[in-house]
Amino acid sequence: MIPRHPGVAFAFSHPAHFIALGFGAGVSRFAPGTVGTLVAFPLWWLLGPGYSPLEMLLVLVLLFGIGVWACEITGRNLGVSDHGAMCWDEVVAFLAVLAVLPDEPLWQAAAFFVFRAFDVVKPPPIREVERRVKGGMGVMLDDVLAAGYTLLVLAVAERVFL
């Protein structure tokens, strides 16, 4: 029987689980989505500088596709299509945000808090997409929308305040 909140053994029992749980970040019992979002920072520091914008877009599309696969399998094995422990969606969506932002700590910190707010509150149409689109695609898609809202808010803030 699968535990209510997956542990380390579950995370390492299948490659899809390890990915969907954000390389293990999702086993955190405290705010796994936030922990998963934090995983994006070291990945960005490793990946970001080495790729052109087009190459980064292709990497993000590949990571999104891997996420659809991994979250589909993991959700099925957990018996919950969008289990809170799955945080690869936050990792990939926040990587996309970091790819667009200026490479400055203040922008990145602001983006982190704005992204987390949108991911938690889920304003329209995010919640509707989450309800209607199931499986791995649904898991990944709502966070892409939260990333879009994050970039919009930061663009408006830059325009108004800077």
What brief labels describe this structure?
8 helices; mainly alpha; 162 residues
List the helices and strands and how they pair.
Layout: H1 8-11, H2 15-20, H3 32-47, H4 53-78, H5 88-100, H6 105-121, H7 126-132, H8 135-161
Major sheet summary line? none
Rg, nearest Å: 15 Å
Taken from the alpha-carbon principal axes, the silhouette is: globular
Portion in helices: over 70%
How many domains?
Answer: 1
- Distance from N terminus to C terminus (CA atoms, Å) equals 54 Å
Mean pLDDT: 94
**N to C succession of SSEs:** HHHHHHHH
Percent of sequence in beta strands: under 5%
Quickly give the structural class.
mainly alpha
Uncertain spans: none
Number of helices: 8
What does this entry look like structurally?
The protein is mainly α. The protein has one domain. 72% of the residues lie in helices and 0% in strands. It is built from eight helices and no strands. The chain has helices at 8-11, 15-20, 32-47, 53-78, 88-100, 105-121, 126-132, 135-161. Helix 6 (105-121) packs across helix 8 (135-161). The radius of gyration is 15 Å and the shape is globular. The protein starts with 7 loop residues before the first helix and ends with a helix. The mean pLDDT is 94.
